């Protein structure tokens, strides 16, 4: 009885919380709403009509222009972004999982030291690494290739950290021990036993990586010069720099920006369920 | 206890890693280029690859056309529109400049003082191209001498964009002189306090330079081994005084930036009746104000006296950059790029370039009526404007600094804290000071 009153909140505070969340939701969604509206307008309406109200609904035409521009280079950029983000996140997640699993399951000299060094890597912003990486890559001759963006994308110290925490939480030692007793090798144990237990957690790591690579701008800007290798972010930036000469590019930049957030939304919606469980299982420990 | 040890170890490892990176960086940083040999025009044996940096939308497609036709001279483009001069400057410092790069007319003298170019006149095709370009553009790329450091690419001959319906509504003729323009400004404003004849963009020194150019207000001259700085002259003071009067009488808006959304909104609301613009501006109105199709006309700039004169606003060249060892191939490509009708047509269509080549005015796209402008042949006006541009106008070696000083003072004048004539004096002082700082010999006056 007494616990009930303690948990129950007053109507006022609940309303206040709801109001605050509503305000925040509007605040966060307004730019997306603007983008949605602007992407449906012809160039001529961008400056001359109110930004948050629909005018001519030209979304289909804008999309046609966007994908038709410069021999369909935008489609190429979109494909590149997908390649960088999906492959990079998949390989990155696998490596992180292997590392994190190893750090959690095996006891060896220097384990904590190694883990701390990797943790230190979390503190170094990827932007700060772009220039040193450029110098390294230009010495090895892989600047201006897919690898120049792909290789740095598969490294994720934060992923390793999460994978270790998740392994400790989700993979009981006893299961690993019994798999070994049954004669499974270490890789077999990982892929057949631990991997399934870790799946929700790995989705979390994958999502982090995917969004990070999808939104990455500075690294491709430093590494790439060939337009055909650009991800969407860099391509839109280049177009935006040319609007002074060709004003119609502005419309394509806006429509392109809208298109570029669609895959991220899809991935989030599809993987949301896994993600929640993943976060929760990590949070328990 | 163990944590302390770990921390020390980590610190050591980080230092070691950093040292490793620094070492690698030192190894890979480019060695200074050796002594440059005198430029020669030997064709290379085998396939040559040229780098060409530019800011033109769709230029990769123009170059693809060339590459298809010329398997032995392959060109790679790089778009540097987001930091044009920063990128070029860094590449020059690193000794890794491309063979060809896009450089604005007003940046040529500065980059020349930085030893950024090679003289392509060793190739006989380079000086021979002179007759293919509008005269004033060639005098810019040769610095008035016999060298050829760049080929002109596009220009921005100026003209007056007029809302003919507004003028008709108020029973006004379209002005032919700046005096008539000022009178009309007053009449329009009297008839409708929300209506201004145009706007004065205080953050656009390039535009103001075009106005000075029209009045033969030469800002620099190079003679007797030194620069003569005349940013502040009778000609320039006439222009500054004129616009100052319009600003003081609040006949022109000073709160709009060229090409900005508020600018288009003001035009959309019929608050501004003219636009003092350049050839490349024709598509700005067509694309951003489609509702006003048929209401615009383009006429020559109002003049100061009775004789026709015009100025240029914007435009670029394609320069032969330092370290270029393939001059023969570079001249061949550069010449095609900027004089071949097929290339010019494509650049105009994709990149909106208004060509500097004389052949440009014969392009179908530039000799037909434009639907947005009542099917008027607006490019005839720009072609005529281009012919009336003073060929002796010279940019200074510290133009960027001077432009910034001019803009600072123009912004103050627009806010009522000074005059445009003051802006000229401060730009003049800045020009002399920055040249003195760089040990470039310069004196004030002719």
Structural class of chain B: alpha/beta
Spans of chain B of at least 5 consecutive residues whose pLDDT stays below 50 are 1-36
Helix share, percent of chain B? 40-55%
By DSSP, the count of extended strands of chain B is: 10
End-to-end separation of chain A in angstroms reads 31 Å
Q: What name does CATH use for the topology of the largest domain in chain A? A: MetI-like fold
Oligomer: heterodimer
Low-confidence stretches of chain A: none
Kindly report the name of the CATH homologous superfamily of the largest domain in chain A: MetI-like
What is the CATH level 1 assignment of the largest domain in chain A? Answer: Mainly Alpha
Please state the CA-atom Rg of chain B, rounded to the nearest Å. Answer: 25 Å
- Count of the domains of chain A: 2
Largest interface here, residues on each chain? A-B, 32 and 40 residues
Strand content of chain A: under 5%
Reading the helices and strands of chain B in chain order gives HEHEHEHHHEHHHEEHHEHEEHHHHHHE
Descriptive notes:
By secondary structure, chain A is mainly α. Chain A has 14 helices and no strands. Chain A folds into two domains: 2-61, no CATH class; 70-284, MetI-like (MetI-like fold, Orthogonal Bundle), CATH 1.10.3720.10. Chain A is 79% helix and 0% strand. Chain A starts with a helix and ends with a helix. Chain B has 446 residues and is an alpha/beta fold. In chain B, the strands form two sheets. In chain B, strands 1, 2, 3, 4, 7, 8 and 9 form a seven-stranded mixed beta sheet that branches. A three-stranded mixed beta sheet of chain B has the order 5-6-10, covered by helices on one side. In chain B, 47% of the residues are buried. Residues 1-36 of chain B have low confidence and may be disordered. Classes of the chains: A mainly alpha (285), B alpha/beta (446). At the A-B interface, helix 3, helix 6, helix 7 and helix 13 of A face helix 1, helix 11 and helix 12 of B.
